[in-house]
Amino acid sequence: MLPLHSNSLARRPFASPLPLPPASLPSPRETHIWYVVPDELKDASLLYQYMELLSPCERQSVLRMNGERLQKGALLARALVRTTLARYTDGRLSPKSFKFQKNRFGKPEVEWDKYDLWAPPPLQFNISHTSTMIACGVTLDLPIGIDIEEKQRKTSNNILSLAHRYFSPVEVAYLKTLADPECRQSEFIRLWTLKEAYVKALGRGFSGTPFKDFTIRLEASNSKQVTGELKSDAPSIVVEAVDDPGILMNRWQFALFELNNSHYTAVCMERDVKNPADGENNSLKLEVWRTLPFVEDECVTETDAVKNIIR
Amino acid sequence: MRKRGTPPNRALRARRPPEISPTVRSLPLAFSLSSDRSMASISGTVTATSVRPRLTSRAPVVKGFSGLKSVSFSIQRNGFPSVRLQAAPRRLRFQVSCAAKPETVQKVCEIVKKQLALSDDTPVSGESKFSTLGADSLDTVEIVMGLEEAFGISVEEESAQSITTVQDAADLIEKLVEAKSS
């Protein structure tokens, strides 16, 4: 029985969840990523604990999902967002206390209460999920988008048909240069995650920012960016409008990598112009944790769980 | 299986047995990872299985402004007409639109199930929202392309964005097919 009713006779008693270890706030150029692998959740009582964190509205949404697997995924996603954000409040806010609103394009964001003696950190977040992983990215006061896709994801339609329909001409041309079908498949997926991350960072989502209108590609090194800073030697990921090629939209920086050996992950974050970088390295920094909220957190930043990073 | 009743309105009588697709709302689940699945109740609502036979002919459905409840007439199993309130769609619309044929809805369900790799016994009906079926944006574009291929139509991006349910897709398909043939 699921003890959602407070006076339900079937309420299963459980110990209060372990407090979440506090986390240091992301620095201006950092994205923090917390991810959950649903299959790692073996203890059913945890699902009850997570359910307790949700607002009534969120619970309804979870239960509208079609089938137990999707419901579990939706529940974990909300629990991940709430517990992740709570970590950055130094114990002052519980996961349950967060409220959310949508921006005018429908992007979810935190609705902060006003407190007398404490200013909550201006956290921004974004989540993405597949059936086998849910990831939440957090920044300090900078718009962020994140998208994950299973590396093995196959498409029903032909890659070039999809690309012709949804990608920009430059991107289609790039995919055409890849003769190996598997390579083309994986590059398509990686490009898709980058484009998704970008539109999610913009806050307008897939429907608000047609994929065809912008190109994401690698820009060769040693070019002087609009900011006037020399980039490091490695090529970097850039975005430009199809109507305005050559003018890079420098406001946005990217990272593309493999997570947990199972997922391509793309992060897009607004560049912090208030805090210009000292030295040369202006690129997006990542800190990554694998988590099972209330059970286990593991920092995997410098491990094999995060690899093949392109920025 | 079809109950023999006499529908009062001949125009709505089925030419063949109506497809009764049960609209099963997600019953509150027991989150158990074992095989024991007992029903739980959520504070407030326990919804029941309702059976809503599809209108087999093109019965006009009047939809009002968003925020107003609209009314549709549907025939229940025992043949008595009933007034069923349904919430008006969120987008502002005041038009008489025809609900798509059940065959179209059925075909859309098949394509959606295939794309999302849902099992045959997963309940998918006109009311099913793509998002609650677990479709992400890549799934949605693949579904649209699959529908285009199956029905020989071309869906514009603006129209594609407004599709959120199976019924939306079916209605749009029929509109496009009709426009094509006229």
From TrEMBL, chain A:
The keyword Glycosyltransferase does not apply. Its EC number is 2.7.8.7. GO terms for molecular function: holo-[acyl-carrier-protein] synthase activity; magnesium ion binding. Keywords: Transferase. Residues 143-229 form the 4'-phosphopantetheinyl transferase domain. GO terms for cellular component: cytosol. This is holo-[acyl-carrier-protein] synthase. It comes from Elaeis guineensis var. tenera.
